[in-house]
Write a structure and sequence with these properties.
The structure holds 2 protein chains of 2 kinds. Chain A is built from 18 helices and no strands. By secondary structure, chain A is mainly alpha-helical. Among the domains of chain A are: 135 residues, Tetratricopeptide repeat domain (Serine Threonine Protein Phosphatase 5, Tetratricopeptide repeat); 59 residues, no CATH class. In chain A, helix 4 packs antiparallel against helix 5, helix 5 packs antiparallel against helix 6 and helix 15 packs antiparallel against helix 16. By secondary structure, chain B is of the alpha/beta class. Chain B has a single domain, classed as TIM Barrel (Alpha-Beta Barrel). In chain B, 47% of the residues lie in helices and 18% in strands. Chain B has 9 helices and 8 strands. In chain B, strand 4, helix 4 and strand 5 form a beta-alpha-beta unit. The radius of gyration of chain B is 16 Å and the shape is globular. The chains are: A mainly alpha, B alpha/beta.
Chain lengths: 328, 212
């Protein structure tokens, strides 16, 4: 109770609780979800008279992997149809937690649980199959994602969207189908889905072009911490596309993504400091952010020229700020 | 509207200090606008930490102040505290978040790199703290703390706590956008801790509203 009282602003800042399997990958707008810890089918704290607490999962979540392993093993021994416990064992074997990593054993447990209809196991097994990279596995993986998606698994919906865009021998890339999956993933709480759906709306791919809707979905992705979404939304905000123009607001988001090492954001931020829009003009900041972006592979002759004549004192400030950006 | 409130850090306490400290603690909580307090246990008193924390938690609860324990997520629920303050953005933080959220508060301190601070924020810490004295007694220079608070407050939403060694520094941090200002010796070593808490409240309140 006092928690709410201590941080009144928290309610607005917190609802990032959706599944976050974001990889901060700025170069590939559509990348597959990575495996992540399973989620319990039921909320953890038991309600009076409700189901017994999931001790195994609780222990797993708290990092007590040995307890989790023991409990899950016991549960499977007691009930050969305990799919969530099997999924947990799959998880423990896959990540090599307290037992030696064993992908074959992990897949075996996932397969058992998936066969019993466990959506998390279906999703994880699908991801494992895709990582093997064999074409026939991809078909099976898609089937598993479809089963998990039918039960509302956000990561599976998102991955189906990615697969729809990738296409294969039997199917051409299908953006309309992808857009539908991404939207459903986003509705189920997946911020990557929100990002991908926003990009398709912005480009009018698979869905009618709608910049206002695109901006709204990209904002949701940006607020959810998807860095690529922050960059795209900041660009729209700066240019006033689909959303009321706000250069200062855009600069702020670029700063955030730049601090998170996104080279595109670093490059744009350098330009903003050069022309003094959204931020005060500042040649030292130009040099600072250009140097980071350049180190990440973004060449920019205009910025090179702009910082060609720094004074020794400015150059010293740049080095000092570089150090601070890395260390503190 | 910008708001900045106090975050108190107790001196390292042993069981023997408790009877003298408890009334002073209660008086300070009553005198200032204190949002939360971090209970520190003296080295060598770890065995008594539950008793020490439980006593402070009771006082804090009566004053509607959140009491946090240091680096011991498991102690928080056992001692009736409202959360834990953990070091770094690594496994300690992850485990504290897993076991205490969302019912209790989890904050991150001793952040040595910008990356650590950002990771802590992304992991879901309720706040990040900058500039507090480290376990070895070293306190980062105030200008560094100010630069960190300044940087953080501008671009991140996770609340930040800046540590101040003096009431003047407290006001400076509030002007820079700190959501909370942490005070330790500046309160406890003042001639009158209650007066210092009241004065700190007045100064950071004025500084924060001047910013807004």
């Amino acid at each position: 109770m006092r928690r709410r009282w201590l941080f009144p602003a928290l309610a607005a800042a917190l609802p990032l609780a959706g599944p976050a399997f974001a990889e901060d990958d700025f170069s590939a707008p559509f990348t597959l979800s990575h495996p992540r810890p399973v989620e319990p089918d039921a909320p953890l704290p038991p309600t009076p008279g409700g189901p017994a607490p999931d001790i195994a999962f609780g222990a797993f979540q708290r990092g007590y992997y040995l307890t989790a392993f023991r409990e899950a093993t016991k549960r499977v021994a007691d009930n050969p149809k305990d799919a969530p416990a099997m999924t947990l064992l799959g998880e423990i074997y896959r990540d090599g937690l307290v037992v030696r990593q064993d992908l074959v054993e992990a897949a075996r447990w996932y397969r058992l649980a998936a066969g019993l209809g466990d959506k998390n196991a279906q999703f994880q097994l699908g991801v494992m199959l895709l990582e093997d990279g064999e074409a026939k596995d991809k078909v099976v993986a898609r089937g598993l994602f479809e089963k998990a998606a039918a039960q509302g698994h956000a990561g599976a919906l998102y991955n189906l969207g990615v697969l729809a865009i990738q296409g294969d021998d039997s199917a051409k890339p299908d953006f309309a189908k992808a857009a539908d999956y991404f939207k459903r993933a986003a509705d189920a709480g997946d911020d990557n889905g929100a990002y991908s759906y926003g990009v398709l709306l912005r480009d009018g791919k698979g869905v009618p072009l709608d910049t206002a809707l695109a901006a709204a979905w990209l904002k949701r992705a940006a607020d959810g911490g998807i860095i690529a979404g922050q960059v795209e939304y900041a660009i729209m905000l700066f240019n006033g596309i689909g959303v009321e123009r706000d250069e200062t607001g855009a600069a702020k988001i670029f700063k955030l993504a730049a601090a998170r090492k996104n080279p595109i954001a670093q490059n744009r931020l350098a330009h903003l400091y050069l022309i003094g829009r959204g931020v005060p003009q500042d040649i030292v900041q130009v040099a600072l952010w250009h140097s980071f972006a350049k180190a990440a592979g973004i060449e920019d002759a205009e910025l090179d020229a702009a910082i060609a004549h720094l004074t020794p004192d400015q150059a010293k400030q740049v080095r000092e700020l570089e150090r601070k950006q890395m260390e503190f | 509207m910008t708001v900045c409130r106090l975050y108190l850090i107790t001196p390292p306490l042993g069981l023997a200090d408790l009877d003298a400290f408890a009334p002073r603690f209660a008086a300070v909580l009553a005198a200032g606008d204190v949002a939360s307090a971090l209970a520190r246990v003296a080295p060598g008193s770890a065995g008594d930490s539950k008793r020490i924390v439980a006593r402070l938690a009771e006082i804090a609860a009566a004053a509607d102040v959140a009491l946090l324990v240091e680096n011991d997520a498991r102690l928080a629920p056992r001692a009736g505290a409202d959360g834990a303050h953990v070091a770094g953005a690594g496994a300690e933080l992850t485990q504290a978040l897993a076991s205490l959220h969302p019912e209790r508060i989890v904050g991150a301190g001793e952040l040595r790199l910008r990356d650590d601070a950002m990771s802590a924020g992304e992991a879901g810490a309720d706040y990040v703290m900058f500039g507090e004295p480290r376990p070895d007694g070293y306190t980062p220079p105030f200008e560094d703390t100010l630069a960190r608070v300044d940087w953080w407050a501008e671009i991140f939403q996770t609340p930040c706590v800046g540590f101040a060694g003096t009431l003047e520094q407290a006001a400076t941090l509030a002007s820079a956008g700190a959501d909370f200002v942490a005070l330790g010796d500046a309160i406890w070593r003042a001639p009158s801790p209650e007066a210092a808490a009241a004065e700190a409240t007045r100064r950071i309140g004025a500084a924060a509203s001047a910013r807004a």
